[in-house]
Design a protein that fits this description.
- By secondary structure, the chain is mainly α.
- The protein has 2 domains: 240 residues, Rhopdopsin 7-helix transmembrane proteins (Up-down Bundle), CATH 1.20.1070; 135 residues, no CATH class.
- 76% of the residues lie in helices and 0% in strands.
């Protein structure tokens, strides 16, 4: 693999990190968000510093041959720990238990990182090796132990990740399960990376030469495993966000029928709230619900509870369920009130102080059902037609 094969994944991870950083700035106490940012940061660092051109540059800048080796091994070890911590926080549970387990993984892999640095300092690796240090120094005291330690730590993390994600995937559904299965697939590539690396190193211990496994086969497996795993981590978060946004925009659109119906109730001269096109969907829904409730307040003097009760009984008689019948009754009352308000342009009823809002329409729990009934219920259509012709509803 050349430098480009490392730098492209590093850039991809950096872009994902840049997208996440603003959220961390506003919610830095969120352990899951911190775990995601740590993972993306370490993944980008691993790919950047493991690239042969970067390895050579770091060695030259420091003046220490092969100093990049413990640096890359420490980054890989820290990345392994970040994956474990992310899954622990992602899976959730009692906060104290989650924090305790995360701290154990961080402490354990922190000790491994310290040991890697100490072993490199005790060893002797004077000849720079950009691609095959693992096998070239496989029999060198202390360097040998450093190589074996980082491979063992990486292998333990991969095995634990596969086990945790597989067990968790059996308990969940949807995008989360798909993401966990993708993570498992990615870590199977990581296990293959460990197997090929260790095979080449053990072959050196036994006096054989299988260096090509470490030099040419293992790196592509590591890159592929990291990219696949990253997709598994990101997919549920992105898809859940898209799904949530779709539901919010659907709610906004479905509320439109009721919103359009009650707009007539606004007093003359009332300014219309105009939201910027970039306003969040959540804010738009809140504003639309607020407008609807304001409309209910202005329509209150025109609400006819007897009409509502008649519409409710008729909806039940036609086979509607309890919740649907209540929504149809509320919608019929709103439709009749709108017709009555239209027939009273000077607002004589309002000016007479005949306020009768009460709890006629029972809050946001029914807004979507009421909106749907306004558009689709035959009972509501009949009430609207009768109110338009005679100024009254069901009789």
């Amino acid at each position: 693999m050349n430098g480009q094969d490392y730098y492209i994944p590093a850039v991809a991870m950096s872009i994902a990190l840049a997208v996440k950083l603003p959220a961390l700035r506003h919610n830095w106490r969120d352990p899951l968000l911190r775990s995601v940012v740590a993972l993306l940061t370490l993944a980008a660092a691993v790919f950047t510093f493991a690239a042969p051109p970067t390895i050579g540059a770091v060695n030259r800048w420091t003046g220490v041959p092969n100093i990049s080796a413990p640096l890359v091994y420490c980054l890989i070890t820290a990345f392994s720990a970040s994956c474990l911590v992310l899954v622990v926080n992602w899976r959730g549970g009692p906060p104290e238990q989650t924090r305790r387990v995360s701290q154990r993984w961080i402490l354990g892999y922190g000790l491994v990182i310290v040991a890697l640095v100490v072993l490199f300092a005790l060893g002797d690796a004077p000849v720079e090796r950009l691609r095959d240090l693992d096998t070239h120094y496989a029999n060198t005291p202390f360097i040998r132990e450093m190589i074996a330690l980082y491979l063992a730590a990486h292998n333990v993390a991969a095995l634990v990740m596969v086990a945790m994600c597989w067990r968790w995937s059996l308990q969940v559904r949807g995008w989360l399960r798909a993401g966990l299965m993708i993570i498992v697939a990615g870590y199977l590539f990581n296990l293959s990376y460990d197997a090929t690396k260790m095979t080449a190193v053990v072959a050196r211990w036994a006096g054989h030469d299988l260096d090509f496994l470490s030099t040419y086969v293992a790196p592509p497996l590591a890159s592929l495993g990291a990219l696949v795993s990253a997709i598994g981590f990101v997919l549920p978060l992105v898809c859940q966000r898209l799904s949530d946004n779709w539901e919010i925009w659907t709610t906004y659109r479905r509320l439109g029928w009721l919103w359009q119906e009650v707009r007539i109730a606004a007093p003359a001269g009332t300014p219309s709230v105009q939201m910027a096109w970039w306003s969040a969907a959540e804010l738009r829904v809140i504003q639309r619900e607020s407008d609807i409730h304001d409309g209910f307040l202005h329509l209150g003097p025109y609400f006819d509870r007897h009409l509502r009760e008649d519409a409710y009984e008729l909806a039940l008689a036609e086979g509607a369920g309890e919740e649907t019948a209540r929504a149809v009754a509320d919608a019929a009352m709103v439709a009749a009130a709108v017709q009555a308000r239209t027939a009273d342009p000077e607002g004589r009823v309002i000016h007479a102080g005949e306020e009768n809002t009460g709890d006629a329409v029972e809050g946001p729990r029914d807004l979507l059902r009421i909106s749907h009934a306004l558009r689709h219920s035959p009972v509501v259509q009949a009430v609207r037609q009768r109110a338009a012709l005679s100024g009254s509803g069901l009789s």
